[in-house]
Amino acid sequence: MIPGYVMPTASAIEDLPNLIAAMLVDHRPSRMPFFNRVAGLPRAVASDPELLGQIHLVYQSAMHATRAAVYHLPHLDTPALRKRKLRIFIDDDGLADGDMHHYQLTRAFLSIGAKCLLGDEEFGEPGELCHFVDAEIAHFVRLTPKLYARSLGAWCAIEMLSVDWMRALAEAISVHFPHFKHEPYFEDCFAQQVEERHAAEAIDITQTVLRVRPELLHETLHDATVMAAALDGVWTHLDRIVQSAEARPNRLQPRDHLLVEPVDLDECGVGIRGLEVDTDGADAERA
Fold this sequence. Notes:
- By secondary structure, the chain is mainly alpha-helical.
- It is built from 14 helices and 2 strands.
């Protein structure tokens, strides 16, 4: 026993849902500017295939990291706990007809015109995936498997926050693409309350472990906090991507006119000397 160490009380373990919920209040994803910024984008920006592809890459990378890491959760070795863990695996990776949340998410983004930057099967080992994402997302991708393998705290944090960010993302993008929130990735989860069930199960399983191993409580709470802070970084990075897309100059608006100035070429007939956007004429038509 470490000098000065105080063993967590049984009441602290029974109060785990409230302890973690209180810790996560300041990390609710929906409070982050990214979601409102996406909802408020001009249509021309929101429908940019490259922007949508960047959002898909970052979001899918973060989700892939958590889905892969859940296979390495510790302390769940008894038959009863393995059985409960298997049900969670099936909810994510064992859907009907060989489907899985990963594939559903990609299809949802393809349905709104995203130019996806990685194929589904290119999301693999964290070290490899980090080559395709910026530093902030690479940090999340590398950190997630370490935290998930060390305690059940990071898993609890992600499961308790997931329904909040899924609803926020679905609503934000559906402002521009109303069918988006009805894609199976979202609608099936919401209708079956998959994320709520996973959150309740994560907490209940963790309490089961802590009743036998109360000395793990401090590490569990610590890792939940670290994971939530790293997740904040994902939304911050996505917000920067959207801000950058908003700030790009010379973006064509719907129904803007291209004015083409022809020029004769000696061998090729008619070519183009200049290209200009006539927004005045388009504005007049809109009026």
